[in-house]
């Protein structure tokens, strides 16, 4: 994992504003004690949740999308580390492990690719390297029975999350086969064909490679569902979905019923929890939209799914604070921070 940067206490405190008479999460959460031996550090901590950043937009660019998914991580840290440590969330139960830095790879591609097609090919090739490193880290975390909280990055990282978690939870003895389920709140199915890795085909690759058993997508926007993908999904008994239109426009099922259907469909084994921020209306993300669920509904999604499933990991992706088309919004990190704290608080209610 040559691109992984493991954080020190100083790294954490550099994002934490210390204030008298109060304690912030950044003062309480844990770091990896011995970066030279990640496994040993994970084995010797009572912390249960391991947060990692994958601030890259290589997968999005490989999908011909708008870059910028590499910009949300730092603003997430600024928000999350300055949350109050209190009875609702103390912080000791969390390890902030660090982040991957693939920026040199993206710079090299930008500088050397000669044409649009060459660039797309190079980005798709680079996603394989990201897949390998993210998978390896998720594998190590889960085989030590810790829960990865992965902040992206493009939705390409669902593939290494699923693969790494399936292998790791299997190795730990928690599941009998290296195969898990996934629930995804998203405007897009990300089940595009296997044309080279990118942010739009993580679930297809995970299924074809045998690491994803069942997949439930909630809130897909009909306008952005490719007909071939739709046909493949409806003809696959291991995949189910409900569109945004069926919930909010045609009102066939309400949001809570859709969440219940998702957890019932995937309740036979551990389940990856996926959230693409482009499904939240007006949230700065690679395929931002004026139409979508509210931030409160996204928080309800995380809380409901955690309480009603056996989580394998949490992955929040595609958020940005600065997009390559010039749009900015500094609040994305704070939104991610709410979602991460909802996940950990929810987990603590159950386990
Ligand atoms: N993860 C996002 N997937 C979408 C991207 C759409 C876009 O950026 O234009 C998809 O492949 O359809």
From TrEMBL:
Its EC number is 3.5.3.8. Belongs to the arginase family. Pfam families: Arginase (PF00491). This is Formimidoylglutamase. Keywords: Hydrolase. PROSITE patterns: ARGINASE_2. One of its GO terms (molecular function) is formimidoylglutamase activity.
């Amino acid at each position: 994992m040559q691109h992984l940067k493991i954080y020190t206490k100083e790294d954490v405190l550099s994002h934490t504003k210390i204030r008298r008479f109060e304690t912030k999460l950044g003062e309480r959460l844990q770091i990896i004690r011995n970066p030279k031996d990640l496994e040993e550090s994970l084995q010797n901590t009572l912390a249960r949740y391991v947060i990692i950043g994958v601030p890259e937009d290589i997968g999005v660019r490989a999908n011909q999308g708008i870059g910028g998914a590499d910009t949300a991580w730092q603003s997430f840290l600024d928000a999350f580390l300055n949350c109050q440590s209190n009875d609702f969330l103390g912080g000791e139960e969390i390890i902030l492990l660090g982040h991957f830095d693939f920026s040199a790879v993206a710079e090299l591609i930008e500088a050397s690719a000669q044409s649009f097609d060459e660039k797309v090919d190079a980005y798709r090739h680079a996603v394989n390297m990201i897949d390998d490193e993210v998978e390896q880290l998720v594998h190590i975390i889960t085989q030590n029975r810790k829960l990865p909280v992965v902040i992206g990055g493009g939705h390409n990282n669902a593939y290494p999350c699923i693969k790494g978690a399936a292998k790791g939870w299997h190795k730990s003895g928690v599941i009998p086969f290296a195969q898990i389920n996934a629930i995804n709140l998203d405007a897009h199915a990300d089940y595009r064909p296997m044309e080279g890795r990118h942010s739009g085909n993580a679930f297809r690759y995970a299924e074809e490679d045998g690491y994803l058993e069942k997949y439930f997508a909630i809130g897909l926007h009909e306008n952005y569902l490719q007909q071939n993908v739709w046909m493949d999904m409806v003809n696959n008994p291991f995949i189910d979905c409900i569109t945004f239109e069926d919930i909010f426009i045609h009102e066939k099922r309400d949001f809570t019923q859709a969440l219940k259907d998702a957890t019932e469909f995937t309740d036979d084994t551990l389940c990856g929890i996926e959230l693409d921020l482009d499904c939240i209306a007006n949230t700065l993300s690679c395929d931002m939209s004026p139409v979508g669920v509210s931030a409160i509904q996204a928080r309800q999604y995380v809380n409901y799914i955690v309480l009603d499933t056996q989580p394998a990991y949490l992955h929040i992706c595609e958020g940005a604070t600065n997009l390559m088309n010039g749009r900015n919004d500094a609040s994305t990190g704070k939104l991610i921070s709410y979602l991460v704290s909802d996940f950990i608080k929810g987990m603590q209610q159950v386990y």
